[in-house]
Amino acid sequence: MRKVLGMIFLLDSLATGVAGGCEPEGRAVTVEQHKKLQPAGPGKQSFDVTRHSIPLSEIIYSVPRDTIPALLEPRFIAAAQARGELKDSDRVLGVFLKGKGKAYPVRILNWHEVVNDVVGDRPILVSW
Questions:
Q1: How large is the average pLDDT for residues 72-101?
Q2: In sequence order, what are the residues at sequence separation of 6 or more whose Cβ sits closer than 8 angstroms to the Cβ of residue 61?
Q3: pTM for the complete prediction?
Q4: DSSP, residue by residue, 3-62
Q5: Between residues 3 and 116, the one the model is more confident about
Q6: I need a surface site. Which of 1, 32, 35, 114 has the fewest CB within 10 A?
Q7: Whole-angstrom Cα distance, residue 74 to residue 115?
Q8: pLDDT-based confidence at residue 34 (cuts at 50, 70, 90)
Q9: CB-based contact 114:71 (threshold 8 Å)
């Protein structure tokens, strides 16, 4: 990742995880005739699955809603310090706005999935 070494890297946690939720290629979107909701657990808002590309019988809920914590106040280190924390092969999701750049390691996003941050003076949401 030599091209992003001038950016700032997020190194809040070294946790790893597995990303999921990708829509399978080649599957048509199904739209139910009536609104279809899947329960989300006690006291939680149900998921609207009226429109779906995966058969509802194949959807497995293994993690309750709001279980994966968003990063609300990420900590950053300078790119020069990140050399010991990141390998050249590590993937990052980069944001560059108005001359300010930040990079979010995919291994961190696999765990947290959402980061609420600010680049320059602009609030952003990074989603993986």
A1: 86
A2: 38, 40
A3: 0.51
A4: GGTTSEEE-S---------PPPTTPPPEE-SS--EE--STTSPPEE-SEESS-GGG----
A5: 116
A6: 35
A7: 8
A8: very high
A9: yes
